[in-house]
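tool=predict chain=A
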Amino acid sequence: MTSQRKPLLLVLPWRETLRRLPQVIAGLWLFGTGIALMVQADLGVPPWDVFHQGLAQTMDLSLGTVIIIVGIAIVAAFVPLREQVGLGTLLNAILIGVAVDTTMTWLDRPESLAARITLCALGPLIVGLASGLYIGGGLGPGPRDGIMTGLSKRGFTTWKVRTAIEVTVLLIGMLLGGSIGLGTAWFALSVGPFAQFFLRRFPTPEARHAARQDHASS
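tool=predict ok
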């Protein structure tokens, strides 16, 4: 017997969607803010944003615009990969880029090295908090996470897929002139633990329900 395929669109009751939506929007906006802090720190940006930055310079577009274009293109790849697309997936593709450009319009690159280091240090912390909020909202995976899990379901080890994707976009971004530095390494090493910490504090409604059932049955 073959397992039943999940529908391509993740659709929740509208009341439940509205209840989760503020948390998801807050998380996505904070995610873009954290990225913008690292860009303005000018000490190196996350691997995906080295790629985005390189494309932005090549195409003469704003960084946020490129993030949106890449996000939408990746969402389109969900169809052949049979990954679910939720409202959160679509909002992720758009809002993060908007937040990056908005933040960068009022936040200039600091002159002092101490201020730049502070912004760089805060970036992964804010992105980790943001990840906990929007993933915990349970309205669909982010485009870049979805492409990773979609490929993993085809027999590839998850960490190998993630590593291959991030190394590839990093190298392409470097060739296009994206900014790599200590901030890139700091983000790569720290964002995982930060995200894990906040994911435990903002579990999805489904995870909370399962935990209550386990507690009741014990």
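The chain has one domain: 19-217. The chain has a mean pLDDT of 89.
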